[in-house]
Design brief:
Length: about 150
């Protein structure tokens, strides 16, 4: 009996290997969706928070596999007399100081939603925002959705 069980070991190994080849792999990042021809990468550059002075998203994002996208600016609260512009920046490397303005919003002075369409950007990107005005405070988030090259 023992020898007949041993004869099945190679067959079991082949079946297990075949099953593993057809198992889907888990995505490394939860922000990616499978959407044929649609937007494949959704990135939160800045989570919703109240801000009173200029700044940036602090971390350069690698979008080398993407060709174009949309930047969503959502201002949910404003006080004082604020004025803000948001710049989508393209960077030649991962150094924040080396980033250049690619596409900049018009002045945002209150609550609302603003869309920036971007394309032909470099591999690395960053969001920069400039806040001015009398005792300005804006609560906002900046998110992006990007299409892969060839879609």
């Amino acid at each position: 009996m023992k020898s007949s069980i041993l004869n099945f070991r190679p067959l079991v190994a082949v079946v297990l290997m075949a099953m593993m080849c057809f198992m889907p792999l888990a995505d490394a990042q939860k922000t990616y969706r499978d959407a044929t021809g649609g937007f494949l990468n959704e990135t939160t550059f800045l989570a919703s928070a109240a801000r009173t002075s200029s700044g940036d998203s602090t971390a350069v994002v690698d979008l080398g596999a993407y060709a174009n996208g949309n930047i969503f600016i959502d201002v949910t609260a404003a006080s004082g007399t604020p004025s803000m512009t948001v710049a989508f920046q393209s960077c030649p490397d991962t150094t924040v100081a080396n980033c250049f303005d690619h596409t900049t919003s018009s002045a945002i002075t209150g609550t609302g939603k603003t869309l920036l369409k971007v394309n032909n950007f470099g591999r690395y990107v960053l969001i920069k925002y400039t806040i001015s005005g009398g005792t300005p405070s804006l609560t906002f988030s900046v998110k992006g959705a990007f299409k892969a090259v060839g879609n």
